[in-house]
Amino acid sequence: MKSDKYELSGYYVDDVIRKPIPCIKYSTNIDILMSLDIIKDKKYGVIILTNKSAEDEVDPESLTLYFEKGNYLLMLLDYDDEGYIDVRTLYNPVAPHGIMQNILGEPYGATTIVQDLEIIKKCFIEFHQTGNVSKELMT
After folding, report:
1. In a 10 Å sphere around its CB, with 0-12 CB exposed, 13-18 middle and 19+ buried, how is residue 132 labelled?
2. Which pLDDT belongs to residue 27?
């Protein structure tokens, strides 16, 4: 099922060449999975799935994946009950607590970085189908 509510875009670096992930304005689940499969063995990059019909300060606006050398940082731009920004991430229970790890030159808590692309795919598909990702997947 195509959706005009969501737009997929991004880029990746293959060796030293930056390549765009073609912007998909009418995305399907298959488009999303194919784009995520492209980045599996790439050096680094970013993929963003934007909900173009998100209600301001209510609905999650975007799901952003930062990746580098098999490490994935997934962030959902959401809002709390009072309308304040709430960025949710995946949780890696086996990562060391209190340790920082760099993704694209920025430090993030190691517990927010995962190496499992399948959980990333699950989150992208859920966001595409429902406009949100369950709190069981992203805290």
Report:
1. middle
2. 87
* Rounded (10°) angle between helices 117-130 and 29-38: 150
Task: Give the residue extent of every domain in the chain.
Answer: 6-130
Q: What are the helix (H) ranges across the chain?
A: 29-38, 117-130
Q: How far apart are CA 33 and CA 17, in angstroms?
A: 22
Query: With contact defined as beta carbons under 8 Å apart, do 40 and 117 qualify?
Result: yes
* Mean pLDDT of the 57-69 span: 95
Listed in sequence order, the residues at least 6 apart from 67 whose beta carbon sits closer than 8 Å to its beta carbon are 12, 39, 42, 44, 45, 46, 47, 73, 103
Picking from 97, 99, 39, 91, the residue whose alpha carbon sits closest to that of residue 69 is: 39
What pairs with residue 107 in β-bridges? Answer: 102
State the pTM of this model. Answer: 0.94
